[in-house]
Amino acid sequence: MATTVARGVETTGVVASAPRARRRKSPYPLWFYLPAGVLFVVLFAIPTFASFYFSLTRWTLFKTEFIGLDNFVQFFSEPMLVSAFGHAFIYGFLTSAAKVVLGLLLGLLLTSSIVGRGYLRAVIFFPVLVSTIGVGVTFKIMMKPDTGLINTTLSWFGVSGPGWLTDPSLALYSVAAVDIWKGVGIATLIYIAGLVAIPQEYFEAARVDGASGWRNFWNITVPLVQPATNTVILLSLIGGLRSFDLIWAMTNGGPGFTSDVIASVIYKQYQAGFYGLSTAGNVVLFVVVTAIVVPISYLLTRREVNR
Amino acid sequence: MTWKLRWPVGIVAIAASAVVFLVPFAFILLTASKTGPDASDLSFSLPKQWVLIENIKEVLHTQDYVVLRAFINSITLTVGSVTVMVVLAAMVGYVLQRRRSRINTVVHFLVLAGLIVPPAVVPTIWVLQGLGIFKTMIGMILIEVTFGLSFCVLLFRAFVGTIPRELDEAAIVDGAGPLRLFFSVIVPLLRPVMITVIVVQAVAVFNDFTGPLYFLPGDAGVTVQLTLYNFQSQTLNQWNLLFADILLITIPPLVMYIFFNRQIVAGMTSGAVKG
Q: What topology in the membrane does the UniProt record assign (chain A) (predicted)?
């Protein structure tokens, strides 16, 4: 220890510049921000700000032409683009709500003393780590109308399953279901951590007062697990509203445009070479995500503080 | 849950989890082990002949070893970006937690913005082109680092908060400078959260599809997720090969999970609940 300290003094030259250092050098230098900050500004902040300008242009590989709000007008007048807007909402809120409910229930189940707890935790969490494309392709095949595993199984019970991904009114919900399947593990994990952190004294006090299990759940568990709920809601909303890979792997936005979301429209317009329109889609996505997530986050954290 | 129900509820839960969560993975494994004609009906049955190894070999062979090259690309991308990400995010998370500075309000805001704001695709390509690193591995690594920073910073900040400040003060009294304090005193203590960040981000980068789709197009830099995506349209009805590819791509996260299960769970939850 003594030797390392001595070497530390020599190499950093603290002794030589001690008076000045004491006056203004913090042991936590701000330049630690620099490398990350440069990357963040160059590859994230600049493109984000630039997107506001480029969304107002007709943009090809070679030139940009300022056209005002035309891209946005087009975005909100073409039915396929407007519907993508609605689909992103449905997808985001549906997956988020399902993950809260299922995550909390599974969290309760997996913090109780049931048998096979370790196995259950492992098996529910594993899909989180698997490639989204892999999951998407697998479920796409399992959801085939005639030969897919899901409908074959249903037919044993005399149920003729629908065309999960080929029925226009169903495709978006089928993809959302797979999203929930894949993501519920992380919600459960967050809830388990939140539930374990609740002090047992509350439940003991409630038992003395003769509270039922149901009242315990609503009056102790739900309010005290609020931080975990907030995390789950925000994470799944942020992920769900801008979701792309799963939808792209399973339906490519189809049939027709019935499972298109904002992120898949951005990709389609990009592929077609309409860079301005694609960027306008990005700005719309930006506005949607911020306008939903920021107020919700504000409301939720305020409730948390007031508790 | 009362004590007397632990067996019945547990058994029901295990049975349900087997149907919901294990069957899809079993289906992948079984189909990947079948011969082409055997796999064509997509039934959930044991293969007539187990040819898993042959199928995997064939997947790796197709199109001039594209899957093999993709694996090399994906691993390069993952190792490169996670290494840089961990170092940069640890530095930010540490100063952000320790220092009382007005700049921190701005940094906090930016970290949250990085978490919430969806990246603007085409303008990012425009910047990458301006820098001459579009369609290069370096460019892709830097993109993954940038997009992953916010999450890592939050985890590091939360963890640094659990390290007593007295430790820093002792080191400073002993004459340690900022660099020495960070790299010799703090970093070794960050080991648990570092493993978490490495594992979580490695899985995220390895599984990333959208990033390489936009920022690393072209055959030279193709990653495993893109080959899988392309594979499904090219190998129509060769389900055994498609599933062998899926299986192959699932192995790295599975290995990570088997070895680092505890760290993933511990670190993810500490960050999520406190952060």
A: Multi-pass membrane protein
